[in-house]
Amino acid sequence: MSAGLTHGATSTVSAAGDRRGTVVVTTVASDSHTWNLVFLQLLIEELGYQVINLGPCVPDQVLVDACRETAPDLVVISSVNGHGHQDGLRVIDALRACGELTSTPVVIGGKLGVAGQQSDAAIGELISAGFDAVFDDASTTTGEFSRFVGALPAATRAPERTEVVA
């Protein structure tokens, strides 16, 4: 998911009291990039969600603990360094191993491999491992991501916590 793609995929901005739910945004533990997280946070907020941005280089257990504490409606994992596929397989295993997170939607996107666009088999491997969607920078657009997020059902509960410090 790259900032170079269409910005302003949505023109709807919800009021703070009208939030659809909570989304956790993070990178994999090996990725120190932040611009992608800021872009995603702004885009997801425009779609009406409260965003908890855990920042870069998030260890797997910190992500699991934050998700257990906040019970997000979606987890978005972004990678820019090309290790998203490799690290993503480990992260989704940790998330899906936690009973209360087995049905939480989790997506991954960005530069997922050092060779560029992911093959259908590599994307299939991520889906089979437990991701609900894969947004490879080389083959998907911000609009596709926005449509996925926009199609999620609105949360039925108010968020209990608005910030997680990792």
UniProtKB/TrEMBL annotation:
Domain of life: Bacteria
Residue stretches making up the B12-binding domain: 20-159
Record-linked Gene3D superfamilies: Cobalamin-binding domain (3.40.50.280)
Protein name: Cobalamin-dependent protein
